[in-house]
Structure formats: structure tokens, C-alpha cells
Specification:
heterodimer; A: alpha/beta; Hypothetical Protein Yjia, Chain: A,domain 2; 2 domains; 7-stranded parallel beta sheet; 6-stranded antiparallel beta sheet; 21% strand; disordered N terminus; B: 109 residues; alpha+beta; 3 helices; 16% strand
């Protein structure tokens, strides 16, 4: 993926709201739209099927809502979304609609959110104006456990989330809700879990700042790097962590720490290769990397499957810990495999450059050419034959 | 674009550190050319066991060589892995224990 164009400074923070059918996305959206704090927020909702059910329920919305014609999970949705966002931006620029600072995109209940994130990061005219701020996934406290167990889309939506909003906690059995929360925390320890008894819900807090900005929302970054949340107890017993965190015997979450700097060149080679081969199984990568002690702060990386957000360098570390930390949520890939592989690539980067790199025999320069020597005697460029002189 | 040879400068990939804010503090990522040299050397160490090499072409692309000769010109790393998959018939896997063991032997040897 090629980087976004240089940002203009007038960036629009984009929050993607996803969640399984009936998990409360629309109620959450209604709540957000009714909040006076969110007057600067535009909303895109995604009609599913022939009946615009979400649209019918969202009676209070105004012109900021644009219906997407395609509701299916495929490439066409990206085109629709790109056009819809560009249209919104054009209307914003022309003054036809207020200069909104935030954009909320609601996906369908069956949607894989990754194509939407891909669109945000790659679509020309969108990626230079918009920044992905967070992925918010609603999970129904009554039926969520069943969805997670039976619907792969539901497990994936929870795994890629930055913030998990548990809905219907007011009508759910408290013990079942607590069990579901524990299950979500194992599935995606990097996400903050919020409860939405909607009478008390702080909609503004949900959309505040970006999940990936340690300066604006340090608490978020510290949360997703909280090693304790991964059941590892730091480095002490990390070789056993993957078994503890496996969800449905397929999805696992773990946090790796590296004392030595992670060479950025090696990391780029490694991660692009990993995503090419196993991208479907790397649901999330987030990290704070010390790429060289000479840099003032960490480099923040985050990605969802094949989609990697352009890395950002921060001017300072969020705390005294200068170790590189990487969080992975994977399907059927163990912690030890990732750790051994990245460590090897990192060692390759430190082995020097250029002249000492191994060269294949067919790549070696021919030793018999002019300017070199054979048996100590110089080889000269052949002169003109005598009969020509 | 290079006015002399017509080579298009490739778009910046997320894995490029040189030119990114903050990275200039490190010698490793100060210049694009230096970073590409390090990347090329690293990949060649990795590919040695597969009979493949790459070279940097004009700072804008990479040329993949197999024993048959040059087989592909690619502009970035994802395209390189795809070209290798086409050449060898399978995607190169960074978790492959054989690949990692060969790379470590290269380091120690």
C-alpha cells in the first residue's frame, strides 16, 4: 500500500462503527446524533438489503446522512464509500453543509470492516483528508456470546475493534454480561470496553481523539500496550501466553516486547512478507517501536489485516519504558512463531550492508574483464588489430 | 520522474522510513538511498537459500533475479513478494522454520 498524500492539517477524524445484526449500532448512532456535543459530526450509514431499516429508525438525522446504495460486503462498497466521502467533503468545502470535523461511518451488521478501512487509507481524495481515529464495535450483552461463538463475522468485528461497546447491559443477566466482558477482554485485550446503558452514556467521550495518538489520548495507547491485559505477567511466562488467550481455538492475542531497537527496514520487510503470506490471519497489529535510540520517541504502527496505516513518529515516549512493544491479534499463529521470525529478521538487518552481503554465483562480476587481472597479469582492453593500423 | 531515463519515482510505501518526520535523527534512515541499500542487502541474505537475489534499480524499483536471469521489476515490497510467488510457485513465508534457519546459518557462517 502506498502512503496517503501529505496531510493538510485540516484532517477529519473518522470513526467506524460496526457490530453484528441487532447489536445496537443504530441506537448508539441515535444517541450520538442527539448529543449536542456532536454537532460537528457527519454520519454515513450503510443501507442493507432492499429495506433501509437503519434509515427508517434514524428519524432525527438531517442532511448530513448519505445513504450508500450498496450494502454488500465486496469491493463495490469501497467505491460507493469513496464517492460518498468525496461528495461530503466537496459539499463541506462549498459551504453547502456545515464544516464538520468528524465523520462516523456505520457498517452493516454482516460487514467485514476491513474494506472500509482500506478505502479510508487508500482512496484518492479521501486518504489525504481523513484519518482513521477508531473502530468501534457494539456487542449485544444478551446475544453477543452466541454471535461470537457462531458467527465468524462477529468475532472478527470484535477482534479488529479499538473500542468495544457492550449494549443492552441493562436487560442482560449480570453474570452472563460479566462472562461476555471477560471473553471480549481475552479476544481483544487491546480494546477498551465501554458499557452503554444509554441513559448515562457519554457519546462525546466515545469519539474523543484518536486511539493512536499517545499525546492526545495517552490512556488509550497505554491500555492497548498493557502487558498485564494479555495474561503474560510481562516477560516472565510469555511462552505460555498464547494458550491462555486463544479464543474459539483460533483467535489469539499477545503482546511482544523487545529490549533492543527494532530496525525499521527489517520490520517493513518482515511485516509486508507476513501480510502477503498470512494477511488473512493477522487481524490486528499495533505497536510502539523503538526503531533507533537516536529517535526522540516511538514510531506508532497499526494495521488491520492487509491494511497498514502510515506510521507516525511521536516526539516523546508515553512513559519511561523505551522497549518496543507489539500487539498482535491473530488466527492460528502462535506467539513464538512471530517472535522468532521477527527477531531473525532484525538480526539480518544488523549484519551490515552492501559489500558483505552474500552474492549468488551468477551475480558475481566476471573476473576476466578489462581492468582486472588473471594470474597476476593485467587484462587490457583489446587494441585494434595490426591490419587496421 | 527522472528526466534522463524516464524512470518514475515510486510512491512512498509505509515501510519507507527515510523522509518521514522524526526518522532523520538516525543514520540508518537519513537518506533514501542508504535505506534502500540496507533493505536490498537484508533481502538478499534472506533469499540466498532460495536461489534468488534482488538489486535496486535507479532508486525507484527492484529487479528480481533468479538463476534464469532477471525475472521481474517491482516497485515495492508487496509486489516483490508477489513476483517471488509467481517465480517459485509459492508465497515466501517469514514464519517458515527452514527459511529462518537458513538465514541464521548465513549470519553465523
Amino acid at each position: 500500500m502506498v502512503d496517503a498524500a501529505p496531510k493538510t492539517g485540516d484532517e477529519i477524524a473518522v470513526h467506524v462503527i460496526t457490530g453484528f445484526l441487532g447489536s445496537g449500532k443504530t441506537t448508539l448512532l441515535q444517541r450520538l446524533l442527539n448529543s449536542p456535543d456532536l454537532g460537528d459530526t457527519a454520519v454515513l450509514i450503510n443501507e442493507f438489503g432492499e429495506i433501509g431499516l437503519d434509515h427508517l429508525l434514524l428519524e432525527q438525522v438531517d442532511e448530513d446522512i448519505v445513504m450508500l446504495e450498496s450494502g454488500c460486503v465486496c469491493c463495490t462498497i469501497r467505491g460507493d464509500l469513496g464517492v460518498a466521502i468525496r461528495d461530503l467533503l466537496a459539499r463541506r468545502n462549498s459551504g453547502a453543509i456545515p464544516p464538520f470535523q468528524r465523520l462516523v461511518i456505520e457498517t452493516t451488521g454482516l460487514a467485514d470492516p476491513v474494506p472500509i478501512l482500506y478505502t479510508l487509507m487508500t482512496e484518492p481524495g479521501v486518504n489525504d483528508r481523513c484519518t482513521l481515529a477508531s473502530v468501534i464495535t457494539t456487542v449485544d450483552a444478551v446475544n453477543g456470546a452466541m454471535h461470537l461463538a457462531r458467527q465468524p463475522e462477529s468475532a472478527k468485528q470484535a477482534a479488529v475493534a479499538d473500542r468495544l461497546v457492550m449494549t443492552k447491559t441493562d436487560i442482560a443477566d449480570p453474570r452472563e454480561a460479566a462472562a461476555l466482558e471477560a471473553r471480549l477482554a481475552r479476544l481483544n485485550p487491546s480494546a477498551r470496553i465501554l458499557h452503554a446503558p444509554f441513559s448515562e452514556f457519554d457519546a462525546n467521550a466515545l469519539l474523543a481523539g484518536s486511539t493512536y495518538d499517545p499525546e492526545a489520548k495517552g490512556a488509550d495507547v497505554r491500555h492497548w500496550l498493557d502487558e498485564e491485559a494479555y495474561g503474560e505477567g510481562g516477560d516472565r511466562d510469555h511462552h505460555h501466553a498464547i494458550d491462555v488467550n486463544r479464543h474459539d481455538e483460533h483467535i489469539g492475542a499477545f503482546c511482544l516486547t523487545f529490549d533492543e531497537p527494532i530496525d525499521w527496514t527489517a520490520f517493513g520487510v518482515w511485516l509486508t512478507m507476513l501480510l502477503h503470506r498470512r494477511g488473512e490471519d493477522v487481524l490486528r497489529v499495533k505497536g510502539l517501536l523503538n526503531v533507533d535510540d537516536a529517535l526522540a520517541g516511538p514510531v506508532v504502527v497499526h494495521g488491520v489485516q492487509h491494511v497498514i496505516h502510515p506510521p507516525t513518529h511521536f516526539g516523546a515516549w508515553p512513559d519511561e519504558d523505551r522497549r518496543s512493544r507489539l500487539v498482535f491479534i491473530t488466527r492460528d499463529i502462535g506467539r513464538e512463531e512471530i517472535e522468532a521470525s521477527l527477531s531473525t529478521f532484525n538480526a539480518l538487518a544488523d549484519a551490515g550492508t552492501g559489500a558483505d552481503s552474500p552474492e549468488a554465483p551468477w551475480q558475481r562480476p566476471r573476473t576476466s574483464s578489462a581492468g582486472r587481472s588473471i594470474g597476476g597479469r593485467p587484462v587490457r582492453r583489446p587494441g585494434a588489430p595490426a591490419w587496421m593500423k | 520522474m527522472c528526466g534522463l531515463c524516464g524512470a518514475l519515482a515510486g510512491g512512498r510505501h509505509w515501510s519507507d522510513g527515510a523522509g518521514r518526520e522524526g526518522f532523520e535523527a538516525s543514520d540508518k534512515y537519513r537518506t533514501r538511498r542508504g535505506e534502500r541499500q540496507r533493505r536490498t542487502a537484508l533481502i538478499n541474505r534472506l533469499l540466498a537459500s532460495r536461489g534468488l537475489t534482488i538489486e535496486d534499480w535507479a532508486g525507484s524499483s527492484y529487479v528480481l533475479h533468479s538463476k534464469r536471469g532477471a525475472v521481474a521489476e517491482v516497485s515495492n515490497l508487496p509486489d516483490l513478494w508477489l513476483a517471488i510467488e509467481r517465480e517459485t510457485g509459492e508465497a515466501i513465508d517469514p514464519l517458515d522454520p527452514d527459511l529462518l534457519a537458513a538465514a541464521r546459518r548465513g549470519l553465523n557462517g
